[in-house]
């Protein structure tokens, strides 16, 4: 029987050359999060003796996690059971399909990674293991004698991540071993993901980020030249207006009116933010404890694909959305303390307050951008999110 924390998986198999083979019988795997495909790979091996690489999501039975989910997977093995049919053609071309979601795509990424490791004199000591795949990333872990490395591939709209990490000089950031367009090779970060970080650790995270942002405020042209998106007043207002125009029918009139008013007054609001003395700088864009990994002694801030240029206190609002109420006062106080150390006389508390609805509007823009740039089969991950965040924007206005 399927548990609350599991998925019932059907794998539709093809070859790496794109020849359709058929569907395996359904089987259960642990974990509800659809992009987490390591249990799917293990389950196919255990149940059917077949080695697979999961390419992409094909179909779900609704919801946002768990339930029944069908994937397309490539294989060079011969399954131990007869294969069935699957309705539709999972190999139909889609212009927005990511490279790693196509037959042969993961093999190309892995071949590049192996060439890099060979050039570094650290060839693999075992097979690469697929960890995650969805429209925003593909992750593989590769063991080597010098320690494991991670192959990460991202869509074109996140491709600035590798270039950014290669240019920043901070000891709490991962340094890529190599970057090639949409893919990069990263050293493994020892420790744990810090989803449950307590107040003291959260305060350290804030101090580290603010120190980097204070330093990067003088490098806006260089950051934009790397391809980072621009979330300052004029471009964000234009993007927000576009999202509102396309989403207005999903909102209550009062909520839509509040968001329209925010967008119309965004430049004036940004003038007030500037008067608080905190300059535009680098924004992480997805700043929450789970994107920190390591130990209490050494932390690393990961996942810079959502990064951009804009008001740095946008990151404070993003963090507080994910924190227990009891921790928020500690975070707010530390943000004020850290910015005033770098810019005496500044008013980061007022800047953060002015930016709370702007941060939610930015989230609506981000999710609309995902939906515009990923193939329709993957929309299930983000469908409805622009409206959710516009409603949140209205609440905060």
What's the helix and strand layout?
Blueprint: E1 6-14, E2 20-23, E3 27-30, H1 38-48, E4 52-60, E5 67-75, H2 105-119, E6 129-134, E7 137-142, E8 149-153, H3 160-167, E9 178-180, E10 183-187, E11 192-193, H4 199-216, H5 220-225, H6 233-247, H7 253-264, H8 266-275, E12 281-283, E13 292-294, E14 299-301, E15 308-310, H9 314-320, H10 325-342, H11 348-373, H12 385-396
Parallel strand pairs: 1-5
Antiparallel strand pairs: 1-2, 1-3, 4-5, 6-7, 7-8, 8-10, 9-10, 11-13, 12-15, 13-14
Helix pairs in contact: 4-10, 6-7, 6-11, 7-12, 8-11, 9-11, 11-12
Task: Report on the architecture of this protein.
- It is a single chain.
- With 397 residues, this protein is an alpha+beta fold.
- It folds into 3 domains: 6-92, no CATH class; 100-187, Phosphorylase Kinase, domain 1 (2-Layer Sandwich); 193-396, Aminoglycoside phosphotransferase (APH), C-terminal lobe (Aminoglycoside 3'-phosphotransferase, Chain: A, domain 2).
- Helices cover 40% and strands 19% of the residues.
- The strands form 4 sheets. Strands 1, 2, 3, 4 and 5 form a 5-stranded mixed sheet that branches.
- Helix 9 (314-320) crosses helix 11 (348-373).
- It is globular and about 70 Å long.
- The mean pLDDT is 96.
- This is Aminoglycoside phosphotransferase family protein.
């Amino acid at each position: 029987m399927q548990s609350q924390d599991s998925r019932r998986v059907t794998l539709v198999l093809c070859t790496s050359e794109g020849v359709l083979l058929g569907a395996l019988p359904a089987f259960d795997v642990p974990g509800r999060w659809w992009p987490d495909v390591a249990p799917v790979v293990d389950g196919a091996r255990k149940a059917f003796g077949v080695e697979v690489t999961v390419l992409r999501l094909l179909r779900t039975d609704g919801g946002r996690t768990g339930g029944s989910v069908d994937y397309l997977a490539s294989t060079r093995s011969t399954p131990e059971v007869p294969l069935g049919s699957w309705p539709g053609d999972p190999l139909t071309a889609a212009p927005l399909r990511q490279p790693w979601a196509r037959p042969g795509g993961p093999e190309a990424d892995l071949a590049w990674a192996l060439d890099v490791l060979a050039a570094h004199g650290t060839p693999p000591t075992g097979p690469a293991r697929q960890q995650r795949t969805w429209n925003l990333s593909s992750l593989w872990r590769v063991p080597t004698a010098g320690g494991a490395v991670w192959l990460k591939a991202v869509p074109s709209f996140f491709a600035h991540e590798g270039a950014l990490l290669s240019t920043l000089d901070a000891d709490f950031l991962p340094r890529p071993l190599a970057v090639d367009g949409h893919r990069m090779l990263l050293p493994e970060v020892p420790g744990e993901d810090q989803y449950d970080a307590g107040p003291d650790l959260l305060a350290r995270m804030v101090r580290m980020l603010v120190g980097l942002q204070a330093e990067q405020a003088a490098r806006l042209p260089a950051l934009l030249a790397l391809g980072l998106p621009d979330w300052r007043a004029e471009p964000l207002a234009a993007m927000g207006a576009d999202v509102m125009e396309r989403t207005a029918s999903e909102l209550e009139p009062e909520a839509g009116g509040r968001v329209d008013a925010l967008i119309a007054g965004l430049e004036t609001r940004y003038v007030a933010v500037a008067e608080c003395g905190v300059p535009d700088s680098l924004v992480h864009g997805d700043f929450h404890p789970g994107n920190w990994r390591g130990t209490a002694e050494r932390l690393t801030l990961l996942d810079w694909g959502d990064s951009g240029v804009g008001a740095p206190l946008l990151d404070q609002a993003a963090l507080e959305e994910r924190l227990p109420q009891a921790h928020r006062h500690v975070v707010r106080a530390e943000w004020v303390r850290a910015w005033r150390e770098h810019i005496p006389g500044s008013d980061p508390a007022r800047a953060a307050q002015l930016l709370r609805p702007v941060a939610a509007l930015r989230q609506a823009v981000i999710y609309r951008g995902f939906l515009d740039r990923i193939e329709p089969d993957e929309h299930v991950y983000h469908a409805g999110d622009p409206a959710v965040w516009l409603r949140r924007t209205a609440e905060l206005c």
